[in-house]
Amino acid sequence: MAFTLPALPYAFDALEPHIDARTMEIHHGKHHAAYTNNLNAALAGGEHENASIETILANISKLTPAIRNNGGGFYNHNLFWEIMSPNGGPDAAKGTEVAAAIDTELGGMDAFKKDFAAAGATRFGSGWAWLCVDADGKLFITSSPNQDNPLMDIAEKKGTPILGLDVWEHAYYLNYQNRRPDYIEAFFSVINWGEVNRRYLAAK
Ligand code: MN3
Description:
mainly alpha; minor pseudopilin epsh fold; three-stranded antiparallel beta sheet
């Protein structure tokens, strides 16, 4: 049972001006498609050919680099498209359980923004910034290199990601060039807090 590239839940230009249509088109149609195809090729005929992506990630230390890179890339982008929305942004967080938890566990929305932005800005090279739920149901912020994520058994800090930001140059370079902090700031305007909250409640 091969993995399939999910359709984007909105049009390529839906996140403009924060994320431009051309970037979305290439990011989804080329990069994410390649991770999906390469993951299927790497799994073909192997022990994990019919495993769920979560099972694959939880056992990644025993699998090949191709499965690690492309399995992470497949999962991470699936999450990324869903936790953004043209109707996103800070107002969408109001009244949600995850916003209440950010207040009590992470020092409030402004502190979260600052710490999450720092996690993305200081990740050297390519990688992701994450907001996760740990085994005790508590929120934490982390980052990972390349296409790794906190579901992998090799993760420095393990948890369930409920919000992720792709800080690979392919995610922002056409519009922001080297200005990764500007891209991160723009991301906060498109966060789909309804979906983040749904994932928070499911992970807790
Ligand atoms: Mn990407």
